[in-house]
Design a protein that fits this description.
two-stranded antiparallel ribbon
Length: about 240
Amino acid sequence: MKATRLLSLIAITLFCMLASCSRPKYYTSASFDQKTAKHKLVAVLPAEIVLTGNQPKNLTRADIEIIEEEESKAFMQSLYNSILEYANTRKYYTRVNLQDFATTIKILGDNNITLRDSWNRNDEEMARLLGVDAVVRMRIRKTRYMSDMASYGVDLAKRISYETGVFGVANRVGIPVPYISNRTNDINASCSLVSNGETLWNDYYKGGANWNNPANQIIEGVTEIFGKHFPYKQRNR
């Protein structure tokens, strides 16, 4: 179990290094404790996914929408897991409960609300429908530059050039070498806790990915940050 946890932490660290992730900054309302004093249950909503940039030519708009909805559910479940993972520690405990994500999905389905529909529904309406005191909403925008294969090709060419080509010679004699990016995607993600139409907490992530970052690693890396910073923490006595 310890070995699995260690490997997970190493993977997240490598993700942040390879993806050039920025230092996260998050906001918490000055009156958070006062406005959430009676909160007991919170729900994570399906994440809003927007894929932009150079999409594969063999994909139709319908294909892209399917991918967006699959990632929406994956981000939702991963955030749910991350919040629970960091809910209780030796120093802190989380004073609210988290509605099971499967229950949230079922309630939405029973009310004929698709994952995509939920992205544009009013936060207060969603909280009432789900029977919770606040909702957690994620928005992820991924701008695609190239395929994994193209990214790998750029990375390989860079390594060969630095080892045997003119870039390597230039680097050894101190001549500046131009930077060549092999990013496949830029990723901008935000996570907000909303109650009664007011954002009480917000976290933000900005980074990139290349061929060496599997999709599940990117999802877990982003939601790991949000899960760590999720509010409602109180110090153990």
